[in-house]
Amino acid sequence: MPGAAVESNVRVAVRCRPLNSREKGLNSKVCLSMNSTQTTIINPKGGEKKTFTFDHSYWMDTLQSQVYNDLGRPILDKAFQGYNGTIFAYGQTGSGKSWSMMGDPDSADLKGIIPQMNEDMFKRIHEEMSSDESVQYLVSVSYLEIYQEAVHDLLNPSGEDLR
In whole angstroms, what is the distance from residue 108 CA to residue 50 CA? Predict the structure, then answer.
């Protein structure tokens, strides 16, 4: 049906991080704007603009809880329905992947997707097991980094690369 909204199993989001101290020291200017699902990149030399559409576009001041509620919570909901889920954070070094995923786990307002998802997951497991003692759960987690064509398991203290 043309024009009908279609729910997808894949969501693509982009997040703009604030300028870092180095960029501020160089008097760098922000060269993009965001509005809901639209991200516009502005060429600082010529002023031409290119606009891209994503499922979510998050500006510098977007709360970690908003990112989690939009991206992490739906994956957790599907996991409790029996589906596997993956969050794939992509970007160059220093682009904010770790901030979005981990944030500051010791701060309620600054926790990233992973700490928020873990808290929600184990809370739900506890609630379901408390109401039905026959329920059992097996939790399996991978935390991988692909860097210079090598896969690193960040939860493996041996530091050996995966093949």
Answer: 36
Q: What is the pLDDT of residues 35-47, one digit of tens each?
A: 989 999 999 888 8
Cα–Cα dist 154/133, whole Å = 33
Count of C-beta atoms within a 10 Å radius of residue 75? 16
- Ranges under pLDDT 50 in the chain: 1
Helix (H) or strand (E) holding 13: strand 13-15
Q: What is the largest CA-CA distance in the chain?
A: 65
User: What is the predicted pLDDT for the residue at 1?
Assistant: 46
As a whole number of angstroms, the distance between CA 125 and CA 105 comes to 20
Structure-token match 């093949």, residue found = 163
Query: What pLDDT does residue 130 have?
Result: 93
What predicted TM-score, i.e. pTM, was given to this entire model? 0.82
HEC readout, 75-124 = HHHHHCCCCCCCCCCCCCCCCCHHHHHCECCCCCCCECHHHHHHHHHHHH
Residue type, 52: F
Question: What CA–CA distance (Å, rounded) separates 114 from 141?
Answer: 11
Contact 70, 76 (CB under 8 A): no
